[in-house]
Write a structure and sequence with these properties.
This protein is 48% helix and 19% strand. The protein contains 13 helices and 13 strands. The chain is of the alpha+beta class. It is elongated. The chain has 3 domains: 2-113, Alpha-Beta Plaits (2-Layer Sandwich), CATH 3.30.70; 152-250, Chitinase A, domain 3; 265-427, Trigger factor, domain 2. It has helices at 21-36, 51-81, 136-149, 204-208, 254-261, 266-300, 307-327, 332-337, 339-367, 373-386, 391-401, 404-423, 443-451; strands at residues 2-9, 12-19, 86-87, 105-113, 126-128, 152-155, 167-176, 179-190, 194-196, 199-201, 216-222, 236-250, 425-427.
């Protein structure tokens, strides 16, 4: 068998394979011999028909089988002999390959291969990430957020004025000249700087300050240049709000909060919140360190990616992003206007994801990092606990969806990043180096001279 390898593009090759006539003939003979033992031909008992009748009757069927077997076997052997690391499944349709009546069988297959690159010395990667501090102020802020989450929404008396962070039920209109940007009835708005359908209303608390149920307030705004709707960017618009009902969150007192959170006293609750913040900041710190390692690798390992693989991954990310925008209620027309921008962002993200995948996978092979079935089982169990799911059912779903392999790869990448961080040079930004001790006047040399 003769094999020629042609470079078509980055990570894309063409295999041109020629199977000699004797191999083609041998495969035909093998298939007809096998078929002759069981072939049913009218007038003959099974397996007793003459070879020439079997060949005449089943020539077309056997030709398809022979072609498929020859192409598959030749491709697998060529990939192995040429030491090609193929990505994905090449599109091979034997029916499109002509089977000659005589002579060799020749065909070509285009395929994508894993990119080749040199790994840098990743011992001592500089990682200078500041560890977030857990302060008393941070604990106090978290305490208030927890208190607010346990609050009850209660209507405000009609004679009482609107306050910041109240909730109003109102009719909202935003008009830019003749263009109606927003026209909603019975909408629920927090009295805080917010965005409605991509239009920022930063002055909402000021606009509604002192208002009461039944009142209408209006103001002029300039729509930001980064608003979702391109046709109204930078334009002056009128905001009109007719207030219906005003509601306010009634916050629980300390005793009610302690009862709801099952703590004995406020000191114990604050200690628990501090532990929660410390755990969160530790996780944020670890992610920031991993991000620094990833950025270092991406900057030092340049290579081109397989085009088709990148396009497939970018398309998956794009579909996920579009579904998220639709779930958030962004109008289809606005999504279509931003489609080019979204596609560029997802293409860039896909390229970064794939480069990291190949780099970390190469390091895993070099360092002989592997993932055991027990590690996958443990991760599945952890996910099941987090989502309050039965472990066996979650695993069954993941197997059906084909996400277990992705989970295994994620565990592998996590292990590689931990390995790199163990080898890294960790520094704390802003940490002052200890000043070198200066010898006393006269210096150590003088003392030594005197001692001699």
């Amino acid at each position: 068998m003769e094999v020629k390898v042609e470079n078509l593009a980055a990570c894309k090759k063409r295999l041109s394979i020629t199977i000699p006539p004797e191999d083609v003939k041998a495969k035909f003979n093998e298939q007809f011999t096998k078929l002759g033992r069981e072939a049913q031909v009218p007038g003959f008992r099974p397996g007793r028909a003459p070879r020439r009748l079997v060949e005449k009757r089943f020539r077309e069927t056997v030709t398809e089988e022979v072609r498929a077997k020859l192409v598959t076997e030749a491709f697998e052997k060529a990939v192995k002999d040429q030491n090609l690391d193929v990505i994905g499944e090449p599109e091979i349709d034997p029916k499109k390959i002509d089977m000659p009546d005589e002579g060799p069988l020749t065909f070509s297959i285009d395929l994508e291969v894993r990119p080749e690159f040199e790994l840098p010395d990743y011992t001592g990667i500089p990682v200078g990430v500041e560890r977030p501090a857990v302060t008393d102020a941070g604990v106090a802020q978290l305490l208030e957020r927890v208190r607010e989450s346990r609050g009850r929404l209660e209507p405000v008396p009609a004679e009482e004025a609107v306050k910041e962070n109240d909730l109003i039920f109102c009719d909202l209109m935003i008009r830019a000249g003749e263009t109606m940007v927003v026209d909603k009835q019975g909408v629920r708005l927090p009295v805080a700087p917010i965005a409605v359908e991509g239009i920022r209303l930063d002055n909402l608390p000021e606009l509604l300050k002192g208002a009461r149920a039944g009142e209408t307030r209006s103001a002029k705004i300039t729509i930001a240049n980064d608003a979702e709707r391109e046709d109204v960017r930078g334009k002056e618009a009128e905001v009109r709000i007719k207030i219906g009902v005003v509601a306010r969150v009634a916050l629980p007192d300390n005793l009610a909060l302690l009862t709801a959170m099952d703590y004995e006293d406020m000191d114990a609750l604050k200690a628990g919140l501090r532990r929660q913040l410390e755990s969160q900041t530790d996780a944020d710190y670890s992610r920031a360190q991993e991000g620094a390692v990833q950025t270092w690798l991406l900057e030092r390992v340049p290579f081109e990616l397989p085009v088709n693989l990148t396009e497939r991954h970018a398309n998956r990310l794009l579909q996920r992003r579009l579904a998220d925008l639709q779930y958030r209620g962004i109008p289809v027309g606005e999504i279509e206007k931003r489609l080019g921008q979204i596609q560029n962002a997802t293409t860039e993200e896909a390229g970064r994801d794939l480069k990291l995948f190949f780099i970390l996978d190469a390091i895993a092979k070099k360092e002989k990092v592997e993932v055991s079935d027990a590690e996958v089982d443990a991760r599945v169990k952890m996910i099941a606990i987090q989502y309050e799911r039965r472990e066996d059912r979650l695993r069954e779903e993941m197997e059906k969806q084909g996400t277990l392999d992705g989970l295994r790869q994620q565990i592998l990448e996590d292990k590689v990043l931990r390995l790199l961080l163990e080898k890294a040079k960790i520094t704390e930004p802003g940490a002052e180096a200890k000043p070198e001790e200066k010898p006393a006047e006269g210096g150590a040399a003088a003392g030594e001279a005197e001692s001699t």
